[in-house]
UniProtKB/TrEMBL annotation:
Pfam hit, one: PEMT
Keywords, sorted A to Z: Membrane, Methyltransferase, Transferase, Transmembrane, Transmembrane helix
Species name: Aliiruegeria lutimaris
Main location class: membrane
GO CC entries: endomembrane system
Protein name per Swiss-Prot or TrEMBL: Protein-S-isoprenylcysteine O-methyltransferase Ste14
Keyword Nucleotide-binding: no
Record localization: Endomembrane system
Segments passing through the bilayer: 44-61, 97-123
BP GO annotations: methylation
Upper taxonomic lineage: Bacteria, Pseudomonadati, Pseudomonadota, Alphaproteobacteria, Rhodobacterales
Length: 154
């Protein structure tokens, strides 16, 4: 296991997002399907990408305001439960999933829609379970109360 612990620095959600985006892009360019060139699809894709990036930025700002980390694999020093964290326990990861979905729509990579729930599963398995375990350990009843009223994703 020492080898795996040395690789923790590369096991980061943005790298997972880039991998899944690359897979969707390859599918869209190498195995394209008929694109749906419709203003509604374009608008939805833009809203998902822009909304996802905005959600991530707002969450990072909130965490920095409370002097806690937004870096995975590190314990939080403060439990942020207001703002975007009152809608999702993981707004940064939700933003990642929104960006992925928006890109899949923009590229008309319809078979790659399956990558969105797969990405969410990987993020949950690789990051969220560990982070929630630490939050429960570090913040106890406060985390329990927040997790009962706020969904993990949305």
């Amino acid at each position: 296991m020492p080898f795996m612990s040395k690789l923790k620095w590369i096991d980061l959600p943005p790298l997972w997002l880039l991998l899944f985006l690359a897979l969707a892009w390859v599918q869209a360019t190498r195995m394209p399907l008929a694109p749906i060139d419709h203003p509604v699809t374009d608008m939805l894709a833009g809203m998902l990408i822009g909304g996802g990036l905005l959600m991530m930025a707002v969450a990072v700002v909130q965490m920095r305001q409370h002097h806690t980390t937004f870096v995975p694999h590190k314990h939080a020093s403060f439990l942020v439960t207001n703002g975007v964290f009152s809608y999702s326990r993981n707004p940064i990861y939700l933003g990642d999933a929104m960006v992925l979905l928006g890109c899949v729509l923009h590229w008309s990579a319809w078979p790659s829609l399956v990558l969105v729930p797969l990405f969410m599963w990987v993020i949950t398995d690789r990051f969220i379970h560990e982070e929630e375990s630490w939050l429960k350990e570090d913040f106890g009843p406060e985390f329990e109360q927040w997790s009962r009223k706020t969904r993990r994703w949305l």
